[in-house]
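Look at a sample.

——
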Amino acid sequence: MRSILARLGTASLAAALVSCLPSSAQQAPSAAARQSAATHAQQTSDSFRWIDFHSQQDQNIVIWVTRSLAVENWTTIREIGVVFDAALVVTTDRANPQATPGNGPFSVWSVSLTTHLVTPLITGVNLRWFDRLRFSGDTPEEWPVLYDNCRDCAPNTYFTAFYYDVRSHAWNARWIRGGQGVPVWNANPPSSVQWTQVYAVMSAGEGHVALYTWNHFDHGKQRDAEDFIYRYDLDPFSDLESTVAVTGKQQEPIELQMCRGENAVQGLERGQDSPLCQQLLKQHGTRIPVTTPPANNRGRSASGGRR
């Protein structure tokens, strides 16, 4: 928590220190003070923005979020994004005082700016942000991210997108199952089968995108190869999350589009240089793209996409 307090101005340092103490150690604020703090915390707009930790006008939100997260496990607040009455907050947890900054796990939270309610969204390492995208033609843009489940290992990679839910007045994350987003890359394939993975966030028409994943299992002479292709976007009528298996005659056009990567969002595609894609593109006389990340790619934790 020390790094957050270091960002605060002198005028609000004392208030921040008091707000982070256990309730038994604080002097009970007056009703007028409580009402004032709540009013200030709600003074956000319908346009998303990232909080400026050095701006005096944002200190009430920084203090509000810090107090809301006081009982959670974290050492640094990395980012606070606000819209309406909720904050999207990224924290990191340093294992020890000598640990390398940025190597610890991150957590993303939704923090209410009216009730102090805190909701954990995801936890992982190596968080990478991308420019906002729309997953349905009539919905607001959302923040897509990739992240891993471990750092000093062969990590699995997951995809999700953060969005403000008007009905619950809170931030949420898309396609969460078992606490994780969509699994787009597994670095530990079984030795008994040749497993090829391809994924891409691609244009789906009418100004929105969809995530496609393709898992190809080659069993050799034991049995026929298997292909599992899924599309992740939002239902155009209900705006609810949609996960659809791509089958039959739809498979080959989607496979070809994924391997070409022509309409893919930069950075949100992988596997296009696999032997499976190379063979498919060769059959169709298409240039083979190269999308394998460099060996030293560690992603970014800076918010706001490509800054």
Summary: The first strand starts at residue 49 and ends at 50. Residues 79 and 90 are 5 Å apart (CA to CA). Residues 1-39, 298-307 have pLDDT under 50 and may be disordered.
